Amino acid sequence: xxxxxxxxxxxxxxxxxIEESDDSQKCLNVFNYDKSMCSTYFQRYxxxxxxxxxxxxxxxxxGVKPDMPTAAERLEMxxxxxxxxx
Length: 86
Known about the structure:
The chain is an all-alpha fold. It has helices at residues 2-10, 18-30, 39-62, 71-81. The protein has one domain (16-81). Belongs to the CHCHD7 family. This is Coiled-coil-helix-coiled-coil-helix domain-containing protein 7.
């Protein structure tokens, strides 16, 4: 079961914030897990999660499936906006 969850976390169609998560982890590794050095990365990850959560909630309300846009759909959405809003 744990392996299944790990695959979900790494699945770009399910997790829209893999890049932000990876960046946070890299920062922690570079700064020997001194969290105070990585707050910018943590904030970016939180903003990413919040942004896509709101999109998912709205799609669910509108009856759009899947709730979370696929990686390709998200790329189109972000490109149309001129980049990431977070």
